[in-house]
Amino acid sequence: MKCFYLFITLILLVFTGCSSIYSVKDFPSKEELYNSFNNFAKDKKLDIKFKGDSTITVNDGAVIMNDTLFALGYSLDKKYGRAALSGIEKINYTSSDYKSAVLTLNNGKVIKADEITVANDTMEYSVTRKIPAQTKVGVISALKEASYKNHWLGIPPRFFMGTATGFVVGLSIASAYNDNTQSGQNKADEYIISFPFLGAVIGIVWGWIDGYTYVYKFNQ
Q: What is the rounded distance in angstroms from the CA atom of residue 181 to the CA atom of residue 20?
């Protein structure tokens, strides 16, 4: 009976979601909550839920400014340049076709160059940079929460719980099959070995799917 209760407990632990939840009550002020969120949310894929339970996904992070949530995105700025080969101190190529390189000029300036061509002792190249852009999502008073799921962090606890659950299940079934004969003992050993392995695999898969979720609640 003890094994049965332990088995039920482990099963519940395996299927219980893992998360960290932050709200205003966890910080000295709402400004501190906003600062924590801004530091956390850079470059992350976030699910933003409104009070009416509608949801949007932000792919490149978000920031809170003046009680308003903005989604962060990027636009590409591409410019072309040229430099005399005599003015380049070092060329570190970053592609096998010699079309991309990190250039160090004689004046110390470092350039990440693409689309490189060389003619008449002159190198021509392009430089592409990402420019941050902001799009208004909504005022904080209209939002419910923002969440981010880390799939990798969901694996370790589910792996251990799945392995432990598999061991309990295997041990329970093995005790039923072990009739003190050699064949019964062999069968029991198979269950004791196979079920922890099966539980570990299930735990890994389930942990990846369910992940570990960070939740920021803005109006609680």
A: 50
Kindly report the backbone phi and psi dihedral angles of residue 92, in degrees, each rounded to the nearest multiple of 5, phi listed first.
-110, 100
- 8 Å CB contact between 44 and 214: no
List pLDDT tens digits, range 32-72: 999 999 999 988 999 999 998 889 898 889 999 999 999 99
- Residue 6 main-chain phi, psi, to 5 deg: -65, -40
pTM, entire model? 0.62
CB atoms within 10 A of CB 58: 21
Rounded Cα gap, residues 23 and 26, in angstroms: 6
Contacts of 14 (CB under 8 A, 6+ apart): 158, 161, 162, 165, 203, 206
Pairing assessment for the beta strands 18-22 and 212-217 based on DSSP bridges:
parallel
- Return the H-helix or E-strand segment holding 13: helix 2-14
- In single-letter form, the type of residue at position 152 comes to W
